[in-house]
Amino acid sequence: MELSVAGASAYFYTGGKPWQSGQPCLTFIHGAQHDHSVWILQSRYFAHHGFNVLAPDLPGHGRSSGPPLASIEAQAGWMAGLLDAAGVQSTVLIGHSMGSLIALEFAAQARARVARVALLAPAYPMQVSAALLDAARDDEPRAIEMINIWSHSSRAGGFSQKPSNPGPGFCLVLGNQRLMERQSPGVLHVDFSACNAYRNEAALTGLGVPALVLLGERDAMTPARAGRALAARLPQHEVQTIAGAGHALMGEAPDAVLEALKPFVAAAWC
For 36-64, what is each residue's pLDDT tens digit? Predict the structure, then answer.
């Protein structure tokens, strides 16, 4: 679906099902240099089990027009505009990496609109090394190569560079690389700069809804220890760690991610 947000076209995926008035809503927020497609399995499941799914491409990513937004605060404000345009009053937020920061900031800006928050591979602060920031600005292909290696565990072919083929004709590492290469030039540096700069202590300590913190045991981008440190600062939280998984949780361990989300989402409407 496409809507107009702040004068630009905003695309969001509905999980392959028409939008149904009155159904509870789940909002999936992708990470840096990605788009809605990282959530395909999880979003389709919920869309086919009684939920409205709103999985947007952030501005400048995927099919959404306009420039990428330079701060987490601005991206959270854009999300509020998207929910307004879609007529969504309340939602469960599910964010990965940069998307986890956007989810936290959105909850801080619009607390009454958030039922629960699931944070996948989060960290706070989400510091990006100067070398990687420079590469994102000056040598984007090299930056993508580094990120893609670090985002996958050895089980998926990341550090060991095995074929990472979970099925015929499918390669996790190369698929993620192509997804990142499809984004417009300059998006990666904007995204990483936004992550690196974000500071809002109150978004953590003042979170007024239950949070699920889902971590990859072998995450080299936002290590599990950083996610546990973040979780310890949230008033209401549970932590789950997916054994053997890296940063690309939804691709490496799609079923484990879905199984973690199912009871957490269901509890929002009990």
Answer: 999 999 999 999 999 999 999 999 999 99
d(CA 10, CA 19): 16
Structure tokens at 205: 């300590």
Nearest one of 198, 106, 97 to 147, comparing CA atoms: 97
Contact 94, 36 (CB under 8 A): no
CA–CA–CA angle 254, 258, 262 (5° rounding): 180
pTM listed for this prediction: 0.95
pLDDT digits (tens, 9 = 90+) for 119-137: 999 999 999 999 999 999 9
18: number of Cβ within 10 Å: 8
83 Cβ contact partners less than 8 Å away, ≥ 6 residues apart = 27, 54, 89, 91, 113
3-class DSSP state for residue 178? helix
Distance, C-alpha 200 to centroid of its chain: 18
> Helix, strand, or coil here: 92?
strand
What one-character DSSP code corresponds to residue 248?
Answer: -
Domains and CATH numbers, the chain: 2-127+198-269 (3.40.50.1820)
